[in-house]
Amino acid sequence: MAPQTVLITGCSSGIGLATALVLAKDELSRFKVYATMRNLKSKSNLEKEAGDTLNKTLFIRELDVTKDPTIKSVVDGILGESGRIDVLINNAGYMSLDAIDQRSLEWCQAMMDTNYWGVVRTTNAVLPAMKKQMSGRIINVSSMAGVRAVPFYATYSAAKFAVEGFSESIAPVLRDGYNIRVSIVEPGPVKTELFNKVLGTPFEEQAKDFDPVLREVFLTNVKRMMTSAMLSVTQSADEIAKLHMDIILSEKPHLRYQTTENLTKAAAEKLRDPTTDFLLEMLEQAQDRYSAK
Ligand SMILES: *[C@@H]1O[C@H](CO)[C@@H](O)[C@H](O)[C@H]1NC(C)=O
Ligand SMILES: *[C@@H]1O[C@H](CO)[C@@H](O)[C@H](O)[C@H]1NC(C)=O
Ligand SMILES: *[C@@H]1O[C@H](CO)[C@@H](O)[C@H](O)[C@H]1NC(C)=O
């Protein structure tokens, strides 16, 4: 059987890089992987780890999910070389702190442009080919933050909610109309450069532009949020990569996948309490101090 052609965004590091490698190194050679990234200058890690799969089952291309021409050029190139696109993995994105009104609108729109509109642009670019084939798989890498918003990550959570809503809406339509299966993957914290960058920057510095009240709430809570609960369940990018392969190979993929049992419980918790009042208890009782003032 001809290998499946897979396009992945955001492959310079983390989940994208791990997924590209797991698929390209598949012992049964079931995949031909186009691993893309915003800037080829950051290709060295992937290139090194690709070893002799480079230019055999793994091809590196430049694609910026905020720039339509780069998406079109990669998609046209793949269709020219391989004649089809079987799988799209929308992985590109970044995570950064923003508390409510502490960032400019331009800053928020730029994150939305990559983390949400980037997914829409890339999906729209591959859909004509998938519709013609009457087959295809689209996997959107979301986050537990797309199910339960994370305090102090307002725009990041909003972008993931948007991806979740759009995916949920379009999934039954694409399945029934075109045999295109769509899945959303919802990891928690994953050991990646992105995550290390967040942890590596002192919290005081991250919050230096916040107003005094928000800064205090943030500093009171962030260590607990980032270390105990979250870090104890940190997964490796490889685990997520293997899940991506399972989804591609599964005959009837689910719409949603949480990546650990605890995350499944966390997702279920939200459905069990439709008031979701429990989400208001996520922060330590900093507000007691304010009301006491
Ligand atoms: C792989 O292909 C690219 C062009 O697509 C080329 O620049 C590079 O030298 C090739 N690398 C190897 C190891 O063949
Ligand atoms: C992924 O998200 C995009 C935009 O939100 C949407 O167009 C697409 O259908 C989604 N795909 C899946 C598989 O959920
Ligand atoms: C799941 O959560 C429980 C408590 O909430 C914790 O004790 C356990 O270590 C977690 N399991 C994993 C695999 O992280």
UniProtKB/TrEMBL annotation:
Keywords: Oxidoreductase. Pfam families: adh_short. The keyword Repeat does not apply. Belongs to the short-chain dehydrogenases/reductases (SDR) family. InterPro entries: NAD(P)-bd_dom_sf, Sc_DH/Rdtase_CS, SDR_fam. One of its GO terms (molecular function) is oxidoreductase activity. The lineage of its organism: Eukaryota, Metazoa, Echinodermata, Eleutherozoa, Asterozoa. It comes from Patiria miniata. This is Uncharacterized protein. The keyword Oxidoreductase applies. It comes from the Eukaryota. GO terms for cellular component: cytosol.
